[in-house]
Amino acid sequence: MQERAVHTRELLLRAAAEEFDAAGYASTGLSKIAKRAGLTVGALYFHFESKEGLAKAVMRAQPQSIEPHLDSEGLQRLVDITRVWAQQLLRDPLLRAGVRLSVEQGGFGVQDITSFLQWRDTMEECLRDARESGELLPRTDPARVAEFIVSACTGVQLYAQLVNGRRDLPERTVEMWRLLLPGIATPGTLPRIDLAPWPGES
Amino acid sequence: MQERAVHTRELLLRAAAEEFDAAGYASTGLSKIAKRAGLTVGALYFHFESKEGLAKAVMRAQPQSIEPHLDSEGLQRLVDITRVWAQQLLRDPLLRAGVRLSVEQGGFGVQDITSFLQWRDTMEECLRDARESGELLPRTDPARVAEFIVSACTGVQLYAQLVNGRRDLPERTVEMWRLLLPGIATPGTLPRIDLAPWPGES
């Protein structure tokens, strides 16, 4: 039964993400989400207390889409997180809805910083590992740099979305690193960071 | 009469900005905007065809809040634009509403990239001047860097807004430049860029 409840919750989360991703928060009704998941609105209320609660759960599910894809460490891991994120945004509605709702939340009266802090913590951990491995310039502050990377990624995806539906987000993400790394990493670390295109990237 | 029409339009733009800034797009009605401006809704329709048209005008008015404040050139001008922007966001409702609507526009079904392109063009011009003055590293591409700065500023203000109502946006903006400049400017230019606190900044 427990396993089934987890499965149903995940089903609802994905259905909500697909609706929010396509239509935004304001235009998405709970009955549409329930229908897409093949469930009743009553069943939905068993798992989520409100549309706002569902939106928050979608926002907070963002890291799920990234974590299984990575085995690098330190600064390379930080770079790879953002590159997987850029690719997943092109194909994963759960991540895309999470990012969309996080950016647009002010428009529907929500102020939930949780997903931003999740990303910051993950990135700060990479930067602390990088510091221990001697990859960082002495002046680099892992906490502040992590906050800036989260901020910059948020802005880069929004810009790319408005310009071309995020088609070139993977390239923009690599360009961001070419710009940022000289201000973060020691000169000896720079040539060791792999920014080469991945399979499927232009 | 022409002058009076310009004045009335500006009055409506400011009134709309104050309402959008306080309540967001969805919760703001045209009658409230007209009332705040001391005009009728009919007079409003003489200047703007719809709420969406008014929102677009507010988004596109962003550069107004910056341009009168600057007399620097090249890379320093680019830095100063973002620093004036950070300070003005704390006190100018017209700029604040423009930024808010630009970020949240997906939530009310608008996709208007104009204000982002205005910022990009202004910043690209600074970077082209910087190139001519020999301030840039050879690999620095003015157009791509300008797009990244617009993106990063968009994300930094959103993050700062969620964390602390943008209170530390001026400091975050200076930190952004400490990170970015080594990847953009020649080593000889770096010490000449003034990032010292301004009067009123902590």
Automatic annotation (TrEMBL), chains A, B:
Q: Which UniProt keywords apply?
A: DNA-binding, Transcription, Transcription regulation
Which NCBIfam families does its entry note?
ScbR_bind_reg
* Claim: Transcription regulation is one of the keywords in the record: yes
Stated name of the protein? TetR/AcrR family transcriptional regulator
Q: Does the keyword NADP apply?
A: no
Q: Which residues bind DNA?
A: 29-48
The record's SUPFAM superfamilies line, in alphabetical order, gives:
Homeodomain-like, Tetracyclin repressor-like, C-terminal domain
Coiled-coil annotated spans: none
InterPro entries of this UniProt entry?
Answer: ArpA-like, CprB_TetR_C, Homeodomain-like_sf, HTH-type_TetR-like_transc_reg, HTH_TetR, Tet_transcr_reg_TetR-rel_C_sf
Q: Which residues form the HTH tetR-type domain?
A: 6-66
